[in-house]
Amino acid sequence: MALENTQIQDKLTETFGESVMHFRQERDIFTFEVSSDTITPVILFLKNEETLNFHFLTDLCGIHYPDSDVNEQFAVVYHLHNWVENKRIRIKSFIHGENPEIKSVSNIFLTANWMERETYDFFGINFIGHPQLKRILNMDEMISFPMRKEFPMEDSGRTDKDDRFFGRTPSNC
């Protein structure tokens, strides 16, 4: 019998109550939100519950919403896959903008190690309990986080990039 969205939702709400919310189907993936303080037990439950079997972390990434309420300025998104049923889910957890941090899941999924480091490197989200949270792609000396919306798209001091060379003029921008 195929794993249905209602089964996943029922198991999660039965176990975690209001910490799991906003269940919806978005295109071909079942999506829901989890409060940041319960993300680790929820992911552990999804992995260990024998009727769910989400044993594969496909992706983990960050999102920056600078115009949102300070409590929801950042989100960490997890994609899990159940290989047996070929079922994918997306979990979104919002975190505070002034001190963006969330518990690490690298002790649950070893693949989360590099994904959390990359998310830290580009968004500045601190993963509490990560074994070696440091920059992975950018220079260690870098003091900003380039995927945050306040990071400038181009270096205003560069003279080698003229918009006219790229088909961009003030009239068609």
TrEMBL record:
GO terms for cellular component: plasma membrane. It is found in: Cell membrane. Residues 33-155 form the NADH:ubiquinone oxidoreductase 30kDa subunit domain. Residues 153-166 have a biased composition (Basic and acidic residues). Its main location: membrane. Keywords: Cell membrane, Membrane, NAD, Quinone, Translocase, Transport. Residues 153-173 are annotated as: Disordered. One of its GO terms (molecular function) is NADH dehydrogenase (ubiquinone) activity. Its EC number is 7.1.1.-. It comes from the Bacteria. NDH-1 shuttles electrons from NADH, via FMN and iron-sulfur (Fe-S) centers, to quinones in the respiratory chain. The immediate electron acceptor for the enzyme in this species is believed to be a menaquinone. Couples the redox reaction to proton translocation (for every two electrons transferred, four hydrogen ions are translocated across the cytoplasmic membrane), and thus conserves the redox energy in a proton gradient. Belongs to the complex I 30 kDa subunit family. NCBIfam families: NuoC_fam. This is NADH-quinone oxidoreductase subunit C.
